[in-house]
Amino acid sequence: MLREVDDAVRQDRYSDFAQRFGIPLIVLLVLVLAAFAGWLFWQSRQEGEMERRSEALIGALDQIEAGNLDTGGELLEPLATGDAAGPQSAARMLQAGIALEQGRADDAARLFAAVGADEDAPAALRDLATIREVATRFDSLPPQQVINRLEGLAVPGNPFFGSAAELVAMAHLEAGNTQRAGNLFAEIAKAGDVPDSLRSRARQIAGQLGVDAIVDVEALLAQQGAGAATGPSAGAVQQTPEATR
Known about the structure:
Layout: H1 2-65, H2 69-80, H3 85-101, H4 105-116, H5 123-136, H6 143-150, H7 161-174, H8 178-190, H9 196-208, H10 217-223
Helix pairs in contact: 1-2, 1-3, 2-3, 3-4, 4-5, 6-7, 7-8, 8-9
């Protein structure tokens, strides 16, 4: 008898719960399913848009590599004026490169500056754009402005140390700070993560400025393909005219 009463009470509770919350629960379930379906649709659209932008960038690069700069620039224009920060910045950098190839240095500098000032662009791309802008405008900038803009990047360990440090060192040289320029060229020459051509050039200029930039003479001679017996003495490295360029 008690079990029958308990079952009846339980059924009454379930019935009351269903009457009070059944419809709201169904509505909630429908809304959750609709939201999930919407998210899947949005994700699909996003992936499709990313794929379209990637194809546009690849197509533009193919045209640029083939020497069709005008066609490549036209393909880049929709991306450069779009609202996606990454593709927009990449497209502007490529447009700036095209402008340099076509002798339009002012247009290139303007595009580099736009990427460098875009807070939505990836940080690495902003740094690279700043370096390229300064390099493009180097002859028209006061040396101190070059130093102020790039000295934060001209630090060993920074991914762009070599490029930034060379420009800063050249600015010091232009300003008459030969010792600071020589020291910075020596740092470039001793850095293991910069291109060999840049290290060699920096070593030569540092040597001409009276700063020792050689860490291991024997290793340097071996790298240059000269034997210790037939090469220059351990205390000196032959200078070349390239150092003055």
